[in-house]
Amino acid sequence: MNPPWFGQARREKSDFIALVKMGVSLDVLAKGGRSKGILALASAIMALGSKDSVTSDGQSLASFVKKLYDEGRSKIAHGGSLALLEELPLEVEVADAFTANILTGYVACAAHYTGTDTYEDFLAAIPSILPILKVASP
Predict the structure, then answer these.
(1) What are the residues facing 60 on neighbouring strands?
(2) Of 45, 36, 65, 11, nearest to 130 (Cα)?
(3) In this structure, are residues 81 and 71 in contact, taking their beta carbons and an 8 Å threshold?
(4) Quick one: DSSP state of residue 81?
(5) For residue range 3-34, what is the model confidence (pLDDT) as tens digits?
(6) How far apart are CA 72 and CA 66, in angstroms?
(7) CA distance 41 to 126
(8) Quick one: angle between helices 119-136 and 92-112, nearest 10?
(9) What is the model's pLDDT at position 8?
(10) Which residues of 108-129 are buried (b: 16+ CB within 10 A; e: fewer)?
(11) How far apart are CA 104 and CA 98, in angstroms?
(12) Could you tell me which of 105, 102, 107 has the C-alpha nearest to residue 64?
């Protein structure tokens, strides 16, 4: 797993770099699947469709992931955005909460996963693991 990236993001003094590190953290969990892989992982863990809202202002899961990964991680990290001259694509606190939710869900699902040691099988098994987690929670 990749707790160092997320931990570094939380300690980062620059909000722009924190977003980059959160995007990297999720990309690593999604087996380098970029925004499409992150969307699939987040959708499975959150039991949401890509058009379902994930923010109080109604932003869809797909839109949120695109902003976090494509506009945050990729554009900033690769120099496509001059970080100091533009606004952040997402509020860092919201991106942090989202990333923490995915990391927590990933760990909880992994703790109950008994299938083969492949990411694809794990991802496919998440929907069947979620009900177990609901029963196990207080």
Answers:
(1) 53
(2) 45
(3) yes
(4) S
(5) 576 666 666 777 778 888 888 889 989 998 88
(6) 8
(7) 9
(8) 90
(9) 67
(10) bbeeeeeeeeeeeebbebbeeb
(11) 10
(12) 102
